Amino acid sequence: MRTAAPAGGLPPGGQIRRLVLSGTIGTVGRAREFARQALEDWQWLPGKTEEQAAVAEDVLLLVSELVTNACLHAGGPTGLALHGTTRSVRVEVSDAGGGSPVPRLPHEPGRPGGHGLHIVEQLASGWGTVRQQGGGKTVWLEVPAPLTPVAGPGGGR
What we know:
By secondary structure, this protein is of the alpha+beta class. It has helices at residues 27-41, 50-73, 116-123; strands at 2-4, 15-20, 77-84, 88-95, 126-131, 137-144, 148-150. The longest helix is centred in the middle third of the chain and has 24 residues, at 50-73.
């Protein structure tokens, strides 16, 4: 059996979706629902396999973590962008804050708080920060697309 990324509802070259955000109240939920809708439209959700569903849920968790960090440390996010392709989803959360996110070290799993960037490091294939011209920053991460079983020669299973 071969595997391929789900083509889903993505046009050739992928698709970018943007959400303008402000404030901190209800922002995480709005961002998560926006991401869920995109993943459904791109057919990452509900997922044809357990792996696909798990990867899509990871993306939703990561959106929540980046938006929560912007709420806690940068006065709230100003925007969310999702770029879906057949190979990956890139999540970008922008804010007006000046600092750069850094994982809390040492990481203490039993200690409350400070786990968001460790979760990002574990679940994303890469992440980083880009300074915006005129101030603020965008924190980005990428998650590879889950694989879809594709029938091999003869359509076998």
